[in-house]
From TrEMBL:
InterPro entries associated with the record: 6-hairpin_glycosidase_sf (IPR008928), 6hp_glycosidase-like_sf (IPR012341), Gal_mutarotase_sf_dom (IPR011013), GH65_N (IPR037018), GH94_catalytic (IPR033432), GH94_Enzymes (IPR052047), GH94N_CBP (IPR037825), Glyco_hydrolase_94_b-supersand (IPR010383)
Source species taxonomy: Bacteria, Pseudomonadati, Verrucomicrobiota, Verrucomicrobiia, Verrucomicrobiales
Protein name (database record): Cellobiose phosphorylase
Keyword Transferase included in the entry's annotation: yes
Glycosyl hydrolase 94 supersandwich domain sequence ranges: 11-272
Length: 809
């Protein structure tokens, strides 16, 4: 069952009914101001940091789930009927509904009782505001007298305080009204220099700024008292909960339209202008922004700039394969999700409140791999930000806040895979750009300028951190956890009935990770290439030697008869072994050990991947482990706290499925790699939307596994490393066009029946027009560049030129 369709020509997903299985959302903004918008107008917005600069309030775990947003009510003055231009929150059955989620904008069109509305939501490039354009048309044959009511609810800036410190919050709300602009100035009294505002380019008939005045004490957004009565009361909020609602009375002749432009903005004054006297705000920034966006023509210009920006962002990698589902994933939706994930990390969605998580050290380094070709200059900036939070011993704060760029001490570090991801992030950036000079950049440790050292030093400490933290088998210590945050193997209870602790065993028997072992070998290869690019051959050889020693250790202590072991727990017990009652095989170590090159020579890698398909494979993707844990195991930590089939306990983690795709591609099994790709790619799952539940245009973090009650149901969409890794898997390993230190590598691993694929790849200023096609029967694969056969699959870029490449596979 479908709830809409892809409009590839407009790069939009069109939702044709509002009651999607879950809210289907989109993101607004590409710079510093961001918004989340659902297909029914729900969501919220913020400046840079969803925790510390939240503009509008959102209620999580609410009924209905998608509550609070940027809403517009239409009321017929003659009949007294009213409805929502976005269906929510009134939810009156509309005569027509259509939501178009595009790249950086959303349009919601509706029709009721011969009144048509179209609401456009977007964030202009380089601005700190949202535009809400509302067009109302009378498609009937009689004059209509209408009232439009806008509604947003302000958050008290720090979203974590907003939802808990009520004895303070319900006394500090302050607003100011100037013409058709409602200013939210709470916190300005504390000599802060920021405020919010909501403006409409029309003289308002009335307004209110008090939530209770809008909804009524016992009312709701579904049936707000002010809309029911048909008149706002011009009330100024004093404490309690500030909102912004305009009333615009409109008379429309048959066929006549009216367009209104609303500006929801964030303003931050220069320090010397930030404070005049208590409660008095300097409005220069707001006035300037309002003036720039006061007409429909200015909105049209903003949209043209947004579309031009996305043309540029998507241009570096475009394909034409003959399969529209593959093309729309590679050309549009996967890189779009990669950019959104770069901006948000894991912080702000309908599944993360924006309060508990900031930017992830591990997360952001992985995200780099998916977007670096789109905005390399911002990737460089992000690398410096990430590395600046690194600890002196090479470890890392697991997360940091984007506004302060300070490590999150509440979460701390001790996720022992974190440091290695910096090597992969930096390597991915250098391979794409050739900017080896970044390694000379002086970068802080722990955000202390006095501790600054060249970025190369950060990489060296990342590498040696693992070598300095090896366990009794010579494998890397897992610490609090590795990539699998829920695999907490240093848990123990000293006495029956006592709560568990996480610590190091005094006898040295601490938990070890095969996943980190494989990741270490893989990262070591990247690091050695970086060193050789710098001419540091001796250092590169020592890195190679450490990697080779780890491979030997994996061979001795990390192999079971048919697959790679996952870990050793605190007590030295095996995890992910046939000897285990549950959790006999895990996906992560199969992917990373094979990606690292382990077991390639003697066939063990093939055996491990065959076992992965046999035990972990389902029609909806590969589950994380099998069998899932039926009971809670203290020595395993959180991983066994989930019911079987969900999340880390036997769920299908779309994030780690690409590691198996890449591993299969490396072994030359393109057919299986592409099969795995199609099982979880959203566009290929559109026909099972009633099962999948989440958006059919972006990846979800998790799909319920085979042991779950609703196998195939997706959860936690949008913000996930799934986006970057699936993009890397399909573009760099299955299609096989990937950046290298010396040039663009052409190394496809495609199914035999794929046929011809055309790819345009812009790399270091050179445009490669690549055709991949099956080799003639009995012929060997070959690569022809500008009509000449080449014996290397690394094609050196020629800036400002176009190269024609024909590669057979």
């Amino acid at each position: 069952m479908k709830y809409g369709y892809f409009d590839d020509s407009q790069r939009e997903y069109v939702i044709t009914r509002p009651d999607t299985p879950k809210p289907w959302i989109n993101y607004l903004g590409v710079d510093s101001f961001f918004g989340i918008i659902s297909n029914t107008g729900g969501g919220y917005c913020f400046y840079r940091d969803a925790k510390l600069r939240r503009l509008t309030r959102y209620r999580y775990n609410n009924i209905p789930l998608d509550s609070n947003g940027r809403y517009f009510y239409i009321k017929d003055q003659a009949s007294g009927e009213y409805w929502s231009a976005t269906w929510q929150p009134v939810r009156k059955e509309l005569d027509k509904y259509e939501c178009r989620h595009g790249l950086g904008y959303t349009k919601i069109a509706a029709s009721y009782s011969s009144i048509e509305t179209e609401v456009l939501y977007t964030v202009p490039k380089g601005e700190t505001l949202e535009l809400h354009q509302v067009k109302i048309t009378n498609s009937g044959n009689t004059v209509r007298q209408l009232s439009l009511f806008s509604f947003v609810e302000f958050c008290l800036w720090d979203a974590s305080e907003d939802d808990r410190n009520f004895q303070r919050n319900l006394n500090i709300g302050e607003v100011e009204v100037e013409g058709s602009t409602i200013y939210h100035k709470t916190e300005y009294r504390e000599r802060r220099n920021h405020y919010a505002y909501y403006h409409v380019n029309e003289a308002a008939t009335a307004y209110t700024t008090d939530r209770f005045a809008f909804t009524g004490t016992y009312g709701s957004l579904e049936k707000p008292e002010a809309v029911e009565t048909g008149e706002l009361d011009k009330q100024i909020a004093s404490g309690w909960s500030p909102v912004a609602s305009h009333q615009i009375d409109v008379t429309l002749e048959p066929g006549e339209s009216k367009t209104l432009v609303f500006v929801l903005g964030y303003a931050e004054n220069e320090p010397e202008k930030k404070w005049q006297s208590p409660g008095i705000i300097n409005k220069e920034v707001a006035h300037s922004s309002i003036k720039r966006f006061s007409t429909p023509e200015s909105v049209e210009q903003a949209m043209a700039e947004i579309q031009s920006e996305w043309n540029k962002l998507l241009a570096p990698y475009l394909i034409k394969s003959g399969d529209e589902r593959l093309d729309r994933m590679v050309n549009i939706w996967n890189p779009y999700q990669c950019m959104v994930t770069f901006n948000m990390s894991r912080s702000a969605s309908y599944y993360e409140s924006g309060v508990g998580r900031g930017m992830g050290f591990r997360d952001s380094n992985q995200d780099l791999l998916g977007f670096v070709h789109q905005v390399p200059e911002r990737a460089r900036e992000r690398i410096i930000d990430i590395a600046s939070t690194q600890l002196l011993d090479g470890g890392a704060y697991h997360q940091y806040q984007p506004l302060t760029k300070r490590g999150n001490a509440d979460i701390g570090g001790n996720f022992n895979d974190d440091p290695l991801w910096l090597i992969l992030g930096v390597g991915g950036y250098i391979r794409e750009t050739g900017d080896i000079e970044i390694l000379d950049e002086k970068v802080d440790f722990e955000n202390e300028s006095s501790l600054a050292a060249p970025l190369l030093d950060h990489l060296d400490r990342s590498f040696t951190f693992t070598l300095n933290n090896l366990g009794p088998h010579g494998l890397p210590l897992i610490g609090r956890a590795d990539w699998n945050d829920c695999l907490n193997l240093n848990c123990f209870s000293s006495e029956p009935g006592e709560s568990f602790q996480t610590t190091a065993n005094q006898e040295g028997r601490t938990a070890e990770s095969l996943m980190i072992a494989g990741l270490f070998v893989y990262a070591a290869k990247e690091y050695a290439e970086i060193l050789r690019t710098l001419g540091k051959e001796d250092k590169a050889e020592s890195v190679d030697a450490a990697a080779a020693k780890m491979v030997e250790t994996i061979d001795v202590h990390g192999r079971e008869p048919e697959w790679f072991l996952r870990a050793y727990d605190y007590f030295g017990n095996k995890v992910g072994s046939p000897e285990c009652e549950d959790g006999k095989i895990y996906i992560e170590s199969q992917g990373w050990c094979v990606m690292a090159g382990c077991g390639h020579q003697d066939g063990f890698a093939r055996k491990a991947l065959d076992a992965t398909e046999k035990h972990l494979g389902t029609a909806h993707g590969l589950v994380l482990q099998h069998p899932p844990y039926a009971d809670y195991h203290l020595n395993l930590g959180e991983v066994s706290s989930y019911p079987p089939g969900y999340k880390e306990n036997g769920g299908i983690f779309c994030h780690n499925n690409p590691w198996i795709m890449i591993a299969e591609a490396m072994l030359g099994n393109g057919e299986k790699a592409y099969d795995y790709y199609k099982r979880i790619a959203p566009a290929f799952r559109e026909d099972v939307s009633e099962v999948h539940g989440q958006e059919p245009y972006v990846y979800a973090q998790m799909i319920a596994g085979k042991a779950a009650a609703r196998h195939g149901e997706a959860k936690n969409s949008w913000l996930t490393g799934t986006a970057a890794w699936n993009y890397v898997a399909i573009t760099q390993h299955i299609l096989g066009i990937r950046p290298g230190y010396e040039g663009l590598i052409i190394d496809p691993s495609l199914p035999a029946d794929m046929g011809k694929v055309q790819i345009e790849r812009v790399f270091r200023g050179c445009t490669y027009k690549i055709t991949l096609q099956p080799a003639a029967s009995g012929a060997s694969p070959s690569i022809i560049v500008d009509g000449e056969v080449t014996h290397s699959n690394v094609i050196t870029p020629q800036p400002e030129k176009t190269l024609s490449v024909l590669a057979t596979y």
